[in-house]
């Protein structure tokens, strides 16, 4: 069984009109959720329309009734964790408990330089990220006032009164493939680990390692949901797949972890991920105006995977 969601690059020319259309497609066609990036721009190329994260998620919360949703991921490098926790609690409450809160350290140099945010070097970046996770989880999971004294963030008897309808707040999703920095943080803080563009072999290896680390920490491995985000190139015919590839090699993309092909090929590739331990997959859908393609994917692929809407 595998839950399938779509993932949208919010900085990639996404307007309100496109976002609303994609959200309604996810809700109507049977995907378990819709997730999106949190960036000002792409790493290179022209600056395109970029829909701000939390306003877009508030719209999802108030205009859908079934799907789960959230950021993959929102960084502490330009989002203060106190404000993120406050926004997440409000949006999750509005949605009746359907937000999944993806958090990250930040990575893209272009947007940080352009808008005046300090990205920091990698060790400092992850030190700040760990403190940010501590702040968010204390505010969302704690029952009373929270205090914390760190290098980057501080709390003193801080308390959020607007709460998620779920005990412990929205699930915390930590994304990334790093065994030395990301996985230990997932062991300590995450309700869900999301691998990013992994190959099948890489996902299998990291998934096994995460299980070992959870057991070593005395935490039941089943407490952490295992998901991944990867590129999707879907076509109803081989010709449509070739057109969408635009000269790229399908085999090369598959070797890099992308899911490419017609419905039978999607079912086969996604089935192998489920066998490797994936419980959910977020398919990066770059053809934002191809709603017919999403409907065809949902109708021909989802029923064969036994995901959440078919249970």
Please describe what this structure looks like.
- The chain is 41% helix and 18% strand.
- The model has no long low-confidence stretch (mean pLDDT 96).
- It has a single domain, classed as Luciferase-like domain (TIM Barrel), CATH 3.20.20.30.
- Helix 1 runs parallel beside helix 11, helix 3 packs across helix 5 and helix 6 crosses helix 7.
- The strands form two sheets. Strands 1, 2, 3, 4, 5, 8, 9, 10, 11 and 12 form a ten-stranded parallel β-sheet that branches.
- The radius of gyration is 19 Å and the shape is globular.
- Strand 1, helix 1 and strand 2 form a beta-alpha-beta unit.
- It is built from eleven helices and twelve strands.
- The chain has 311 residues and is of the alpha/beta class.
- The longest helix is centred in the middle third of the chain and has 20 residues.
Order of helices and strands: EHEHEEHEHHEEEHEHEHHEHEH
Structural class, by secondary structure, is alpha/beta
Q: Output the number of helix runs.
A: 11
Mean pLDDT: 96
N-to-C CA distance: 9 Å
Please identify, by name, the CATH architecture.
Alpha-Beta Barrel
CATH top level label: Alpha Beta
How would you sum up the major sheet? 10 strands, parallel
The tally of structural domains comes to 1
CATH superfamily: Luciferase-like domain
CATH topology: TIM Barrel
Helix fraction?
40-55%
Residue share in β-strands? 15-25%
Low-confidence stretches: none
Shape: globular
Give the total of beta strands: 12
Task: Give me the Rg, rounded.
Answer: 19 Å
